[in-house]
Structure formats: structure tokens, C-alpha cells
Write a structure and sequence with these properties.
By secondary structure, this protein is of the alpha+beta class. The protein folds into 2 domains: 2-67, no CATH class; 79-169, no CATH class. The chain contains 4 helices and 7 strands, in the order H-H-H-E-E-E-E-E-E-H-E. The chain has helices at residues 2-18, 28-43, 54-63, 147-157; strands spanning 68-69, 79-83, 93-101, 108-110, 126-132, 138-144, 168-169. The strands form 2 sheets. Strands 2, 3, 4, 5 and 6 form a 5-stranded antiparallel β-sheet that branches. Strands 1-7 form a two-stranded antiparallel ribbon. Strand 5 (126-132) and strand 6 (138-144) form a beta hairpin. It is elongated, with a radius of gyration of 18 Å. The two termini are 30 Å apart. The model has no long low-confidence stretch (mean pLDDT 90).
């Protein structure tokens, strides 16, 4: 019982630092009561609960699809498509997507919801920027290490583009 209380308190403390509480549609204590325990046990074995840490907090938050703030401190999957405000451009949209390099072969693969954020087979995620043409084809434009750098580039490429300075995963 004490171990579950420790884990619940650790997750609640972590959540206050990393979740956008304004984005919640559920009542936080009820969500924890209903969903935290079962998801914790689906993710971790009983024996692993003794080693519950901040990485596990992120795994649980992603599994629960909670609104995790994308601030560059945590590996969070992002896939964001934005309309290009520049008329006559070759790109009708831009896409920012988290990607990561496979350490075995160097291939770039998307980092998406459901992927293990701390998978040792992959390098740290970064942000791929793509242009989307009229037929939906993607063209790689650039890579950036942070979301802030990715949006700075898009603001230069497409002045007036509408984007969220602080997106959340949910």
C-alpha cells in the first residue's frame, strides 16, 4: 500500500511540472483513481514498481494520452500539420514531426504515439520539418533539435503561419 502511495505521489508531483492542467477534460483526482493504477500495472510488473521513476511517469502519461507539455525536456511525439499562408507557394502545408535515428542502420524513423520514448535502439528525438505539396507529397525541408527552433524556421519560411508556441501531446 505504501509503495502505491509513493508512486501515486511521485506521478502527481511529476504531472504538476510536465502537464498542461488547463487542457484537462477530466477531473484530475478521478482520472488518477480510475486509470493510473491499471495503466501502471499494464506497463510495469509488480516487481518493477519499486524502481518507479520519472521515465515511468512519462510512459504512463503518454499511455493515458495526457496533455504533456512539449518543452524540449522530455522525448514527446509530435505530428503537427500547419496551413501555409503564402499563396502560390509550392507547399500548401508544413508538417513538423518528431523523428529519431535508428542506431543500428542510421535510418530516420518517425517517433509516434505508442513508441517507447527511451528505446535504446534509437537516438534522441528531434523535429523534422516537411513541406506538403498539392498532391500530399512530403518534401524534407530541414531538421531542428528543438520545437522552438523548428517554429522559428517556419516563421521565416512562411511569415504569418499560425502555430502554437507551446504545444502539448494529447
Amino acid at each position: 500500500m505504501r509503495e502505491m502511495m509513493r508512486i501515486g505521489t511521485a506521478f502527481d508531483t511529476w504531472a504538476c511540472d510536465h502537464l498542461d492542467l488547463n487542457e484537462f477534460k477530466d477531473v484530475w483526482p478521478y482520472l488518477l483513481e480510475d486509470k493510473f493504477g491499471p495503466n501502471c500495472l499494464n506497463l510495469l510488473s509488480i516487481e518493477a514498481l519499486a524502481d518507479f521513476n520519472e521515465e515511468d511517469c512519462l510512459r504512463i502519461a503518454l499511455r493515458l494520452r495526457l496533455p504533456v507539455i512539449i518543452d524540449g525536456k522530455l522525448p514527446i511525439p509530435l505530428d503537427l500539420t500547419l496551413l501555409n499562408p503564402i499563396k502560390g507557394s509550392g507547399f500548401r502545408e508544413f508538417r513538423i514531426q518528431t523523428v529519431r535515428d535508428c542506431l543500428e542502420d542510421g535510418h530516420v524513423v518517425p517517433f509516434v504515439a505508442g513508441d517507447e520514448p527511451f528505446d535504446e535502439e534509437f537516438a534522441a528525438p528531434y523535429f523534422g520539418i516537411y513541406g506538403v505539396d498539392g498532391s500530399g507529397e512530403l518534401e524534407h525541408v530541414a531538421d531542428r533539435g528543438t520545437y522552438a527552433d523548428a517554429i522559428a524556421l517556419l516563421k521565416n519560411l512562411a511569415p504569418g503561419i499560425s502555430l502554437n508556441e507551446s504545444p502539448v501531446f494529447s
